[in-house]
Amino acid sequence: MHLELNERRRRVLKAVIQQYIDTATPVASQDLARSLGVSSATVRNEMAALEDAGLLTHLHTSAGRLPTDAGYRFFVENLMDRAALSTQEQRMIQHQFYQIRSELNQWIHLAAAVLARTAQTAAVVTPPRAYESRFKHIELISINDALVLLVLVLHEGSVKQQTLPADPNTTQEQLSRIAGRINELCHEASAKAIANIAHNQSTNQPPLSSFEVLVIESVARAMQQFEEHVNELIHHDGLLEMLHQPEFGQVTRVREVLSILEGGTMLESLIPQALASDGVQVIIGGEHSRDELRDYSVILSRYGVNGDVAGVVGVLGPRRMAYPRSISSVRYIAGVMSDLMGDLYGERKIEPSE
Amino acid sequence: MHLELNERRRRVLKAVIQQYIDTATPVASQDLARSLGVSSATVRNEMAALEDAGLLTHLHTSAGRLPTDAGYRFFVENLMDRAALSTQEQRMIQHQFYQIRSELNQWIHLAAAVLARTAQTAAVVTPPRAYESRFKHIELISINDALVLLVLVLHEGSVKQQTLPADPNTTQEQLSRIAGRINELCHEASAKAIANIAHNQSTNQPPLSSFEVLVIESVARAMQQFEEHVNELIHHDGLLEMLHQPEFGQVTRVREVLSILEGGTMLESLIPQALASDGVQVIIGGEHSRDELRDYSVILSRYGVNGDVAGVVGVLGPRRMAYPRSISSVRYIAGVMSDLMGDLYGERKIEPSE
DNA sequence: GTTAGCACTCCTCGGCCAAGAGTGCTAAAG
DNA sequence: CTTTAGCACTCTTGGCCGAGGAGTGCTAAC
Fold this sequence. Notes:
The structure is a homodimer. Chain A is α+β, with helices and mostly antiparallel strands. The first copy, chain A, is built from 13 helices and eleven strands. Chain A has helices at 7-23, 29-36, 40-52, 69-79, 87-99, 107-119, 172-185, 191-199, 210-227, 239-242, 251-262, 265-275, 323-350; strands at 56-58, 65-67, 122-125, 129-130, 135-144, 147-154, 159-165, 235-237, 280-284, 296-305, 309-318. In chain A, strands 3, 4, 8, 9, 10 and 11 form a six-stranded antiparallel sheet that branches. The first copy, chain A, is elongated and about 90 Å long. In chain A, 41% of the residues are buried. Chain A binds a DNA duplex through α3.
């Protein structure tokens, strides 16, 4: 991967990629001659060499050069200026997260919005998910004669709600007592452990009422669903802005992007991969085996608290993407979100029990 | 609006519109001659009359006819067959809602998905919102030494969560006691009433601790925000499928739709209008004053429990939309959702107090 | 009132050509 | 051996033209 390239050849490659990212037009030898202080013929020779090396290509004889996947890859790994976001931008982002730090379920909206604006492409964010969710607390609230609202709080802070049928005339006091008992029974338990509590009735003293069993089973089911992330949704933002990029001149491109985002590729393939990796993942075009990604690049990072709970944040854009800026943005925002989550319950890791 | 049109002329108009909806191609006199049992010349005469009446138009001399806004309007109000969904479809939809009836926050996802598939256009759904939200219940859950999770349940069943800073070493028992006191203080109260509780400290006996005031203020703020629907989001689905329609041949169309959905037109203009109206609203093309809607039609219906809590469900598509099917779908799904919400807490309306 | 016939209009699409962009090669210069 | 000027060559792009075709509007006959 790390090819032998002399200094000037690297400069040419870098210049081609930067200009192509900037203008979306194949770059001609003439364009670089001036800034490199050599003639266009010399640049052409260098370009031809880079093309032999598989880093550049061109669309037809009389067209300028543009990078291949390998070219972009080399750029990202060896050539690119790793510019961080300006401190001003960092402050703004921090500030916005600070504003809503208490509203957990707005995080993903904010993260997607900020990332889309900062990286100037479409952003994707998944909500944080526990590897193994642990029970924290339930609450039972009477809604009317026959219905009860079950609010389930999981350890990493996510809240699930559900309604359950109840015996008529169950009072709120009774419900609170029941909730209290279940909270003790299920304290810190995993989904499996809770399912067992409902099934191995005999060990419970006094035995559980049928309503209590129903509640416990509902809790177990909700936690299992949560772990299998049946409900996991990808939130995205910035699609509209991305459509102004020239690569989206025809509607099929738009359809491709939408079907990557909403049609499963993201969820089935990219997100799991990002969850399983450390650091920022950069996937350029056809490097990924999924054919529908051929013309797109994806930059993803896990965020969260190590080994405890994690989500994914990142961007999706055309292969011709502002890699330096996008990578910095993804890295920075993943960091901010991880810090915030650390504040919320990272400490618990250090002080083992509550 | 209700023009004088003889029977045959109505038949011609209806046939033109149905065929145009079907094929997206201007319809020629020849196309209708067979099915109407007259010659193409006769059809042409009728078409010319309909054009004079402002119900049809054509793009250039040698092109077939297509409906104007007024033509579609006449069709929707006087000509269209009001076919209900098949009982099989109805059962399927009912069944799907039944499956997730307990998971309130999945309703809008399901509704949008089902509607998009049934009506075969893009669907939009807003979550149910109370006209004036009333306090139901809070719960305070210790997350770690310095942070507390506040879970707020509103009367119509929605749940808000928020984290608050707390004195170190506050125990869960203390928090539960505080929650209990606040639950009593705020019982069934409105946002304003709760804000007053926090401000008119003097009336409280014993006086509220600073943490209690913080909690109450947070509750009041959350409820106010909820009423002003600062956070109200429109969920949509089916965009990808709609892009296969021939009107989306160029990307500007896609941008237009996205900016209607996400750029404010929906939220600022259409949703409030639908919330304020009874029944199914049909807005055809330029009938609405917003220029960006010129080429689109919108069908919206309020759903919910009358005077208590309501949301909006509907579809957005090209003007050439399958009105009969879309209108039936929107009406039916709004009905199903209203029924479900009625089950949840509509009864309360009949039995005045809890 | 209906319809056959026909002239007329306007769009669509393919082919063609000129202009332009940019390369690759060659041969000369450094 | 590297660099560069020069030039022929290739391929795209955009405009233009003209044939073909679709569908109308009108007129005159039924």
